Amino acid sequence: MPNRDHKTNKGNLMASCSLLPNLLCSFPAMSDQYIRDARKVIDEGFKGLVREYVGVIDTVVQPLQWFLNYLEKVFTNSPWVLVLAVMMLIVYLTSRSVRITVGTGVGMVLIGVIGLWNDTMITLAITTVATLIAILIGIPIGILMARSDRMQNAINPVLDVMQTLPSFVYLIPVVVIFGIGKVPGLIAVVIYAVPPMIRLTNLGIRLVDKEVLEAADAFGSSPGQKLWNVQMPLALPTIMAGINQTIMMSLAMVVVASMVGVGGLGKNTLQAINNQFFTFGFMNGFALVAIAIIFDRASQAFGKRLQKHSEVVHG
Amino acid sequence: MASHGIEIKNLYKIFGPRGRDYIEAVQAGLSKAELNEKHGHVLGLKNINISMPAGGITVVMGLSGSGKSTLIRHINRLIEPTFGEVVYDGLDICAMTENGLREFRRHRTAMVFQKFALLPHRTVLENTVYGLDIQGVSRDESAKRGRYWIERVGLTGFENHYPNQLSGGMQQRVGLARALTNDADILLMDEAYSALDPLIRVDMQSVLLDLQAELKKTVVFITHDLDEALRLGDKIAVLRDGEVIQQGTGQEIVLAPADDYITAFVKEVNRGRVIQAGTVMRPLDGPADGMRVANTTTLESAAKDMCDAGQSRAVVVDAEGAPVGVLDLHAIVSAMVTPAKTEVPKLAAE
Ligand SMILES: Nc1ncnc2c1ncn2[C@@H]1O[C@H](COP(=O)(O)OP(=O)(O)O)[C@@H](O)[C@H]1O
Ligand SMILES: [Mg+2]
Predict the structure, then answer these.
(1) Is the CB of B19 inside a 6 Å radius of any atom of ligand 1?
(2) What percent of chain B has pLDDT over 70?
């Protein structure tokens, strides 16, 4: 049977190709040898470059390593009761919602019961660090973009490309430059998660009411005073939406980044896929979904609370 | 702080990337429509010359799109002029440096906006002291001054409310308090009351007049409503298509409209509230006895006083109380209903 299929296929191919010159029929690729050589040259050149700057790269990356390790230690070494209490407190303070707070408690306890507390802490640590870094990088870039149309026109295409690239693809340059490990994973996560932060900061500032800005000018505000007294506060709800998206994208990318050596729930998921561990995979999936929902609900509720005074009730 | 007048001289504004290039053509008579059609630039203001008296309210009136907002924004240079001067206290505002302009805006001008333009995340008090925050005044000091003006505009008790908890009229009181707290000589009001309901608008006009009687600021008030202009304006300038087509006191404009456009405007006005006793009185022809009215009394209130007193004739007196003429009910009624043109000669009395 398979043999016959093969034959008919070939027959079809020959039938449609017989009228065409070979050049148009099968793609005229460069010779394998040529491609192999070219790849080798480029790879060697790139590696040489990385090797040359390894000192610089290490010094840049070192603080990230320390910060990440420190936070991971804090999360995993503290008694779970304490971590849970602090988490619920933070969730309550941001959302002011008993429902979300109780949900957080229940979700985390279930995670602990199925034995994934430690892995979840590792994932939380890297997500937290990645989000903080994305905010620190994203907000200033967003502000720059909002201040100049030329800046916006220059950065927007870069963001477009970043957002269309599949998440896997980010891992390639990161691994080549930084190698395998937690920190390269972290860097990949930050690069993947930063575009919405930049975009929504820019958008939020650009959407600020022109008349309010004019009022700020009329009272003699300097550009800095305008930024801090008017633009940032009024853009805050939009910026919060950016933070929310950045958190969710970090969490998604942390799972993918397990392929380059990030631990935690992502690593377990990868194992489950490789070994077809259905239940184990399911449990990890549950833990990921639970913390995703917690992050999402808490940050959204916070954003809504910020928006309370910005709504126009009376014209 | 002593008030100073504002002199606007030969001011032109052409919107568009190369506005300056068309100045000569516009000065030579290129019309707004031609400029727009041939060169794609918009003529915002054309040869504006207005002298705004110190300590008085100058009203700029005109229909939507006539260039009122453009004009008032030249006084604190929120819009850059294409040509001309705006002089205040011997300084050309159009020639100020960036820092000089910022200082000028901080200390000499304050502005009230049509859509209030309050900061939604700041409370009433925090909005009120915005100008002082910008100047770096300590919160202790600014809160004290802010509370005073909040009380003066009638918002005591609302200091800690947010703008979106207030009605439109109350929000504009905040806008006014914010401007007054700045303690600036120039008060710029761009259609400040146009978004308010008619009754609240009249209320706010009274607030402004009461405060102005005491503060004597140099106020520039924009409106598209002639009644509002007549009630507030010590001086009124009427704009059309970026040009001043008439300026003068309310009475002058009502009694002698410069063209059909203004005549149409003026037709619906309650003349009894604009024309003054001194304008329609007859020369003194007999004994100066009986009831008296001041020559600046409006016909409406003179008529009311005379009816209340059961008199049909009154002696008009000047500011010193010296008799200058007589007025009877017949003259009042005919002035209130006759078309403007017949009274033009009487304006010589001014
Ligand atoms: N930034 C601008 N660019 C081009 N045209 C403008 C600009 N601002 C105002 N204009 C034009 O100038 C004219 C006067 O506008 P404006 O001063 O806002 O009128 P008003 O306040 O009397 O309604 C209008 O024709 C308007 O379209
Ligand atoms: Mg306007």
Answers:
(1) no
(2) 96
**Residue A92 belongs to a domain:** yes
B68 Cβ below 6 A of ligand 1 = yes
Which residue, B239, B211, B189, is CA-closest to A218?
B189
Specify if A29 maps to a domain: no
For domain B6-266, say whether CATH 3.30.360.10 is its number.
Answer: no
- Taking CA atoms, B3 is separated from A174, B78, B173, in Å, by 67, 22, 23
Q: Which residue of B has its CA nearest to A222?
A: B102
For the domain that residue A169 is a member of, what is the CATH number? 1.10.3720.10
Q: Is the ipTM of this structure higher than 0.90?
A: no
Interfacial A residues in 207-226 facing B (CB < 8 Å): 209, 211-212, 214-222, 225
Residue of the CA atom closest to atom 18 of ligand 1:
B69
B193 touches chain A (CB under 8 A): no
Ligand with the closest atom to the CA of B15: 1
pLDDT tens per residue across span B26-83: 999 899 999 999 999 999 999 999 999 999 999 999 999 999 999 999 999 999 999 9
- What are A72's two structure tokens? 């991971």
- Closest ligand to Cα B36: 1
| 3 state SS of B56 | coil
In the CATH scheme, what architecture does the domain B272-340 have?
Alpha-Beta Complex (3.90)
- Calculate mean pLDDT across residues B148-158: 96
pLDDT at residue B342, rounded to an integer: 45
State the total domains in chain A. Answer: 1
Confidence at residue A315, expressed as pLDDT on a 0 to 100 scale: 45
* Tokens of residue A152, six digits: 């916006």
Q: Residue A146's pLDDT is what?
A: 96
- Enumerate the domain spans of chain B: 6-266, 272-340
Q: Which residue of B has its CA nearest to A209?
A: B117
Residue in the block written with tokens 């009816």: B307
Contacts (Cβ under 8 Å, ≥6 apart) of B35: B14, B22, B25, B26, B41, B42, B43
Give the pLDDT means over successive 10-residue stretches in chain A (315 positions). Answer: 47 63 80 88 86 85 92 94 96 94 96 95 95 96 96 96 88 87 93 96 96 96 95 94 94 93 92 93 95 94 83 55
Residues whose CB falls within 8 Å of the CB of residue B111, separated by 6 or more in sequence, listed in order: A215, A218, A219, B76, B179, B187, B188, B189, B190
B109 CB near a chain A CB, below 8 Å? yes
Distance CA A36, CA A40 (A): 6
The rounded distance, in Å, linking the Cα atoms of A229 and A216 is: 9
Give tens-digit pLDDT for B205-246: 999 999 999 999 999 999 999 999 999 999 999 999 999 999
- What's the rounded Cα separation, in Å, for the pair A119 and A262? 11
Give the position, in ligand 1's atom list, of the atom nearest the Cα of B70. 17
> What's the pLDDT score for residue A311?
66
Interface check for B166 against chain A (CB to CB < 8 A): the answer is yes
**DSSP states of B105-120:** HHHTEEEE-TT----T
Q: Is A83 inside any structural domain?
A: yes
* Containing structural domain, residue A248: 54-309
Residue B33 dihedral angles phi and psi, to the nearest 5°? -65, -45
Distance, CA A212 to ligand 1 centroid (Å)? Answer: 18
